[in-house]
Amino acid sequence: MEPEPTVLDSLRKAVEAMPDDVPLRLHLATMLLQAGHRDEAVRQIGAVLQRDPGNARALGLLRDSGPGTAEAAGPPPADPGVISPERTGVPAPPPLAASQPDADPGEARQASHYDWSQAEDELRDVLPAMFVGDGDAEDSASAAIEEADAYDAEHAGLTLADVAGMAEVKQRLEAAFLAPMRNPDLRRLYGKSLRGGLLLYGPPGCGKTFIARAVAGELGASFITVSFADIIDMFVGQSERNIHELFEVARRNAPCVLFLDEVDAIGQKRSQLRHTPMRSAVNQLLLELDDVSGNNEGVFLLAATNHPWDVDSALRRPGRFDRTLLVLPPDAAAREGVFRYHLKDRPVAGIDLAKLARQTDGYSGADIAHICETAAERALMDSVRRGEPRMIGTPDLEAAIAEVKPSLGAWFDVARNVALFANEGGTYDDLAAYLRKRRLI
To answer: Is the pLDDT of residue 202 over 90?
Structure first.
């Protein structure tokens, strides 16, 4: 009889939480074979062999995974139970010491006659190829050029409703960016130009990229995101060609939100650049933003940076990234949303999100994601010691909060100096107001 679906579901979630845990994957593969899920079992075995190519137990399961083995394997352990906060009843994985036994000589001889051609066919869609065939050098070069020239335009699938909290950020986005685009008649009446872009800045890990995707979803536009590594090339002139190709792809996919992540790396201050190719790349970016031919209609520009004070001043001039929006650490409502998002697919019970949000004031979204991962790891290791899985509870998360410290201190140390001594023209008035509110200056 097939185990309760919840048993396999919780084992799958445990594997997702600890993808490198070979014994756990082998235990899941065994249970899948017993339940008759041969294809999924083969994928789990393939993931094990990717991490440990010589694992004897995985090879044995692969040999036994032919048609009809589900019946031959016999029923699963009796009384698997039902998932509950008190007891799940999932059969415990084998001890670590016994999870990968050394193969005896007889087993080694049997493995030596194993049909590796059949194994390759079974695992072809599971394991990536270790080596690329020689092929034709010219074809490989042209494929590399096509890949370098292609920037994927995707649909974001998000809206600002998916962004928890951050009411002030949403209001600023609506007034400065979204309202003119949603109301073309009023835009024409008031002569509002769509030229220029919006620069999101703030501490790392606070959702700038997520907000950019949500803006694209609000506009129903395509979304292209690029970073320093996608554009800058070691060969002279290639970086400029990459930037031009990027804007051409955005124009062909209009309406399109073009998001430049880490724009301080792409558009560094030219006064700090002694490397001529990098200066040329910044110049090319400025030319594309100016777009004298008027081809940027329908291309909405967003950029994000943790260090706006390192962005070339020419990028901040009118018609370029002339509007800025400070994205601060998540407020209480946003922190609850981040906890809910990262815990929704994990086995949890009795979680007080409001309490956790109060305890994580000053944490970034990335910090909260790390807290959830640490709590899941704590519960998993406790389950290994007990011999049965258990739910993740508030004590696990509180212990993780005590262990994971906020990561934003270094950023605020720099931001404080900028707000106090480099706030020319009131550029960082929003930042200074926040620092005063938090009594950081």
So the answer is: yes
Q: How far is CA 184 from CA 143, 189, 318, in A?
A: 41, 9, 21
Number of structural domains the chain divides into: 3
**pTM confidence score:** 0.62
Q: Which of 412, 400, 349, 339 is nearest to 369 (CA)?
A: 339
Confidence of residue 405 (pLDDT cuts 50, 70, 90): very high
* Identity of the residue numbered 22: V
* pLDDT on residue 1: 47
β-bridge mates for residue 197, sequence order = 301
Cα–Cα dist 57/97, whole Å: 13
Q: Is 321 helix (H, G, I), strand (E, B) or coil?
A: coil
Report DSSP state, residue 309: G
Q: Quick check: 366 and 407 in contact, CB under 8 A?
A: yes
Residues 6+ apart with CB under 8 A from 393: 85, 348, 349, 350, 351, 379
Choosing from 275, 309, 326, the residue where a domain stops is 326
Per-position b or e across 321-347, b if 16+ CB within 10 A of its CB: beebbbbbbbbeebbbbbbeebbeebb
| Domain extent at residue 26 | 5-123
**H or E, element range at 44:** helix 38-51
Same domain, 179 and 274: yes
Q: How far apart are CA 356 and CA 354, in angstroms?
A: 5
Which residues, at least 6 apart from 298, have a Cβ–Cβ distance to it below 8 Å?
251, 254, 255, 256
Most confident of the ranges 266-270, 279-283, 323-327? 323-327
Phi and psi (nearest 5°) for 130? -75, -30
Residues 6+ apart with CB under 8 A from 333: 164, 165, 357
Question: pLDDT tens digit string along 177-189?
Answer: 788 777 878 878 8
Residue 27: inside a domain, yes or no?
yes
Give the CATH number, domain containing residue 292.
Answer: 3.40.50.300
Angle between helices 22-34 and 5-17 (to 10 degrees): 160
Q: Are 395 and 379 in contact (CB under 8 A)?
A: no
Cα–Cα dist 326/315, whole Å: 17
Residue 88 pLDDT exceeds 80: no
Average pLDDT, the chain: 77
205 part of a folded domain: yes
